[in-house]
Amino acid sequence: MKVPSVPLPEPDRPPEVPKTEEHRFPCDACGGDMRFDPGRDAMTCDHCGNVTALGAGDGGTIREIAIEKGLDAGGALEEETKVLDCPNCGAQVEFDPAIHAAECPFCATPVVTGTGTNRHIKPAAVVPFDLQEAAAHKAMDDWLGNLWFAPSGLQKYARKGQKMAGIYVPFWTFDADTESSYSGQRGDIYYETQTVMRDGKRTRVQVAKVRWTPRSGRVRRFFDDVVVLASTSLPKSHTDALEPWDLSALAPYAPQYLAGFRAEAYRVDLEAGLTEARARMDAVIARDVRMDIGGDQQRITRIDTRLSDVTFKHVLLPVWVAAYKYRGESYRFVVNGQTGRVQGERPYSKIKIALALLALLIVVGIAAALYGG
Ligand SMILES: [Zn+2]
Ligand SMILES: [Zn+2]
What we know:
By secondary structure, this protein is α+β, with helices and mostly antiparallel strands. It is built from 6 helices and 17 strands. The strands form 3 sheets. Strands 4, 5, 6, 9, 10, 11, 12, 13, 14, 15, 16 and 17 form a 12-stranded mixed beta sheet that branches. Strands 1-2-3 form a 3-stranded antiparallel beta sheet, with no helix packed on it. About 30% of the residues are buried. Residues about 5-20 have low confidence and may be disordered. Bound molecules: zinc ion (2 copies). One zinc ion binds near residues 32, 47, 48 and 50.
């Protein structure tokens, strides 16, 4: 994949950054920028070591919002943030005003913080980072170390100066009460004794048959926190592999949790998120209907579902991301910032694979010579 080149900022003209946002969380001891300290419920100053407890947990409750309010959008639900637009992969990331030029955390393309803004629904809750960067880095090293088919230079390359970016990735969660009426058929297996000719003899055999009877009824289910990814920057296979998330760790949104980290703006809007959540709910409801029909087999001819009390939350979940370029291609490695689960993609070494195949063929050849007679 060819990556467009982006001009770096001219060194003699620093990019303009609003003065008021330069130090959002200054340290009371030295004035430096404090950052959220994963796993500690505190903010830490890397300049002087000052630690300030956050006292999260007494920050109030997380509110579910009625879906109608969200779909109407606008007003008090929304906020505007400054974002960095990646010209290569399209990611929109809220930037730390202290950083003027950086690499896109998702594809390692150099980007300059612009004056772009993004208007969106405010996050309601966040699962704060629990895993320190060092632990995430170690997970990446271990993973790279186990890659037999990776090119030899890659591990050294990836380790050298590889920084991981802590990113809060956007998700939607939906709650809904559902009531579904259905009709279909229930199949019960029974056996019939038949007489057949076998080897010239009359033989009695049992033959399985299905008796179908019409069935209709109702099922109800309350869905709590159906989680839908609202980012398009990371492949869905990557974020799916990071599951499960422990949403009991959700804390009411506070900007302190984002200090020193980045938050990605959602690209899947609320309506599209709801459509995906509906599809997942429908699959669960179909399973409920099959259970309700009972018997050995089921046929469903119709399900009508009524949703009520649909609510949503926009939540941010913590992911450590390392993006690196190797021979012109972008590769990513992600770590769940809550549990430490890892997922990545990497180049394969054609030579190593060819050698392994050759070795396998030799072994097969020897075995054939020994046992083939
Ligand atoms: Zn300090
Ligand atoms: Zn990018």
